[in-house]
Amino acid sequence: MSEPLINQPQQLPFIQLIDVKKTYGSGATEFLALKGIDLSIYAGEFVAIMGPSGSGKSTAMNILGCLDSPKHGQYLFKGAHVEDLTRDQRARLRRRYLGFVFQGFNLLARTTAQENVELPLLYRGDDAKKRQIAASKALAAVGLTGWEHHTPAELSGGQQQRVAIARAIVTEPAVLLADEPTGNLDTQRSHEIMALLVALNRDQGITVLMVTHELDMAAYAHRIVTFVDGKIAKDELNEHPTMPTTMSTDTTEVI
Ligand code: ADP
User: Fold this and answer.
1) Can you give the pTM of this predicted structure?
2) 111 CA to middle of ligand 1, Å?
3) Burial of 58 (0-12, 13-18, 19+ CB in 10 A)
4) In the structure, what pLDDT confidence band is assigned to residue 250 with cuts at 50, 70 and 90?
5) Could you give all domains of the chain from N- to C-terminal order, each with its CATH number?
């Protein structure tokens, strides 16, 4: 690993945080969770965010995901100042450009895989036919063709996370924000999910930002950013990212 090189200086960062600070609480209980973050992410990168619990990773991800805004500093998304956008404008940016994957899958329980994946399109106002085609395509991309009509209870953890990833990519986001996507999975399923994220990054050009505690999952990323105590302590290129060995579209797993 070495210091990140900006090898395409003519390319502008897709996402840029400049001296971003975030506090929680106020007065005597005010707590500075981010103490001045500078981070530039370029289109097509696969970045892992690591660091101990409480170091500010989720706070930074919430800001990057336009779910929260910084108290101080600038957040530029494709050159636009996110901190100046209204709540509605931020929501639109989120719907148009971002996909989210969480540790806990967050699927609707009594709803089929297909319907879960269609949900963001329903919110967007797409008609039934368009939703059905796009959701089938997204489920195929995560290796779940044939599982469309199963509910989460009928799927393994790995398959549920695939449905969640299909739901995140069905809107064709430019950036996928994944917060501990393998945190609830066993080792084999974790590597399968990583293979899928690598494929989405490599084949579809989706920029991936992933928080993880696990070094062997971070090792798939091309760049590893480490948070310590509300600051970026390290920002390194991973010159030899792990190459997936499992089939990213393996659907043979037994529940
Ligand atoms: P990480 O994701 O690295 O575990 P977080 O971003 O969740 O870290 O938290 C950073 C710090 O901010 C922690 O000390 C945490 O206790 C604090 N914090 C996070 N969310 C809140 C909140 N809603 N109110 C008060 N403090 C918070």
Assistant:
1) 0.90
2) 32
3) middle
4) very low
5) 43-68+91-237 (3.40.50.300)
